[in-house]
């Protein structure tokens, strides 16, 4: 390569480097924002269930702690990594798409306790952020949206908080806490997996 050609290519390479670095910085910022948002939701979920448990009589609390493990959540029907090994081996795109579906599964049921905690708005913000990250990874690839739709509605599964039925209210809160913990785990792992040399362990 002649010196003249090198001289002409240097500005192009410099611009390309700056653009790539800016893209990487923006991508990292979006990941950080998503992780922070889901942390807030996870903390809110933990507070909600703690407040609920503290409002119960000890006998009711003990009874509910035995009932819930036998129940299931709507998210159990969503295909997702299970266990540490599978989560650590999952692709960034799979972790992001699973997170989006888990968030989406709560858009309707969150309205039952959103008047106090403004959960629905926070979930919407988080979903938008995660979907931006997904679009970045799907750029130039076929869309898989048609294969990822969730069964709706959720009314028949989740019931609103109801003082008259403690087990149903407890299940709603416990499922929400569990799913926000899963989304937080998946987003943290996806962020780590973007760096091939990183040691991403749970």
From TrEMBL:
InterPro entries, A to Z: 4_helix_cytokine-like_core, Somatotropin, Somatotropin/Prolactin, Somatotropin_CS
GO molecular function, one term: growth hormone receptor binding
Keyword Signal: yes
GO cellular component terms attached to this protein's record: extracellular space
SUPFAM superfamilies in the cross-refs: 4-helical cytokines
Annotated GO biological process: animal organ development; growth hormone receptor signaling pathway; positive regulation of growth; positive regulation of receptor signaling pathway via JAK-STAT; response to nutrient levels
Family listed: Belongs to the somatotropin/prolactin family.
The protein, known as: Growth hormone
Gene source species: Denticeps clupeoides (denticle herring)
Lineage: Eukaryota, Metazoa, Chordata, Craniata, Vertebrata
């Amino acid at each position: 390569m002649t010196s003249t050609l090198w001289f002409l290519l240097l500005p192009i390479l410099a611009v390309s480097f700056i653009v790539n670095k800016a893209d990487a910085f923006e991508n990292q910022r979006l990941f950080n924002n998503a992780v922070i948002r889901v942390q807030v939701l996870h903390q809110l979920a933990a507070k909600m269930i703690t407040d609920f448990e503290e409002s119960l009589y000890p006998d009711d609390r003990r009874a509910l702690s035995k009932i819930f493990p036998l129940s299931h959540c709507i998210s159990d029907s969503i295909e997702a990594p299970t266990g540490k090994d599978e989560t650590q081996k999952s692709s960034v795109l799979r972790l992001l798409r699973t997170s989006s579906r888990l968030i989406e599964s709560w858009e309707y049921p969150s309205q039952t306790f959103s008047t106090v905690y403004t959960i629905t708005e926070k979930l919407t913000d988080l979903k938008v952020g995660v979907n931006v990250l997904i679009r970045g990874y799907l750029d130039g690839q076929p869309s898989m949206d048609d294969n990822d739709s969730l069964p709706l509605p959720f009314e028949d599964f989740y019931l609103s908080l109801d003082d008259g039925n403690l087990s149903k209210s407890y299940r709603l809160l416990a499922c929400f806490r569990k799913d926000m913990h899963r989304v937080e785990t998946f987003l943290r792992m996806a962020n780590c997996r973007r760096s091939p040399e990183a040691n991403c362990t749970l």
